[in-house]
Amino acid sequence: MPPNATPRLRFREMSPDDLDEMADLLGDPRVMEYYPRPKDREEAAGWINWNQRNYAEYGHGLWVIETHDGEFIGDCGLTWQKVNEAAALEVGFHVKASAQNLGFAAEAATACRDFASSHALASRLVAIIHHDNRPSQRVAAKIGMHRDRTLTHLASPVSSDTICR
Predict the structure, then answer these.
(1) Which of 40, 61, 75, 143 gives 20 to 30 Å between its CA and that of 3?
(2) Which residues does 9 contact at the CB level (< 8 Å), separation at least 6?
């Protein structure tokens, strides 16, 4: 069950029917600037499969975010990550380049934060964000998160900061 709709966005589970949009999103060098590299179509299909497994096992994952008119905006949601050798619930998001800087990421992340809280999913949330990724750091700050340098995301192949709430 995804979060409730926001004033501009609705959430839904990813499906194989979303492969074209997800491949475009995760394959865009601007969206994936702070990742080791953009993902190819096969990796985007794997992303969808991973999220479908998360829905089945945990009841949450990254959901497709779209406008109420059905325009694909990106993904946002909650996934379990390993931080300081322990499981931590992460709020994560990707917004297509043409929809960035319009407040969609913060709006969606706020809904996911509130969903995690109202469903008592974890005592805290984290966001694993590359240390140079200022836009994502601003989104995390908007939803009440702060940098915690004592937390480390050991699975990350790039230098990142863990921000928590």
Answers:
(1) 40
(2) 65, 66, 67, 68, 73, 104, 107, 108, 111
Tokens representing 108? 């969606």
Q: What's the start-to-end Cα distance of the chain, in Å?
A: 23
DSSP state of 17: G
What is the DSSP pairing of strand 86-95 with strand 125-130?
parallel
Count of other CB atoms within 10 angstroms of residue 162: 22
pLDDT of residue 148: 77
pLDDT tens sequence across 63-94: 999 999 999 999 999 999 988 778 889 999 99
**pLDDT tens for each residue of 122-152:** 888 888 888 889 999 999 999 998 887 777 6
In the three-class reduction of DSSP (H, G, I as helix; E, B as strand; rest coil), residue 37 is classed as coil
Per DSSP, what are the bridge partners of residue 86? Answer: 83
25-35 pLDDT tens trace: 999 999 999 99
d(CA 129, CA 121): 21
Nearest C-alpha neighbor of 5 from the set 114, 117, 144, 93: 114
Instruction: Provide the β-strand partners of residue 95.
Output: 74
- Output the pTM of the full model: 0.89
Residue 107 main-chain phi, psi, to 5 deg: -65, -45
